[in-house]
Amino acid sequence: MRTGPHPRTPGTRSSSSIARSISCRLFNTSGTKNGADIRLAIDVVEDLFRLQDISHVVIVAGDSDYIPLAQRARRLGRTVIGIGVQGSTSAAFKNACDEFSYYHDLVEDLGEDLADEVVEDIPHSTRTAAVEPPAPDLAKEARKLLMRALRGRANDDVDGWMAASALKQQMKRLDPGFDEKKIGFKSFTDFLKAQRSIAELQEDGQSRRARLRNRA
After folding, report:
1. pTM for the complete prediction?
2. What distance lies between CA 25 and its chain's CA centroid?
3. 138-212 fold
């Protein structure tokens, strides 16, 4: 669990700010897991009230027990980033976060050796799911997500057009784990251009708009 100013926050931080951006909690091993979860959640919420400059909360877990914490942090105006193991992460937990990534995606560019080390650190109870996760068709899931986002707009608007930036934000709200780069596209515009059977794309200079094809 990490709370603190995001690395991209502008300005120079003092040493005291850096020192309080990462906190470590040690718990008696004779206690229960749920007891530790509760104390972690209480600590985070207390920090959010006490330290107003905290902008992001990173929750490294896949347990649905952390959904109330994610929801509470978001209600307090913080950005919640979730990180979990593919195949053993609650879908509801993913949706409770502003952004979500899998361990594997984060370490992929660092090489297979580092990925193996991360897997070794995962508890044995979840290791099978981490090593041999079901292989979802990410491209297919992304197309379904695009259709959901565009259908919502089609019902709300006469012409159904939606700015590309707003469309991507809507897709991220529906699935915080969405990232066009995971399915091989350099940009969201490239992703939209490849979905001509689903969406119409209108380009005007730097402006991009999209709407659902065959809206009738």
Report:
1. 0.52
2. 24
3. Nucleotidyltransferase; domain 5 (3.30.420)
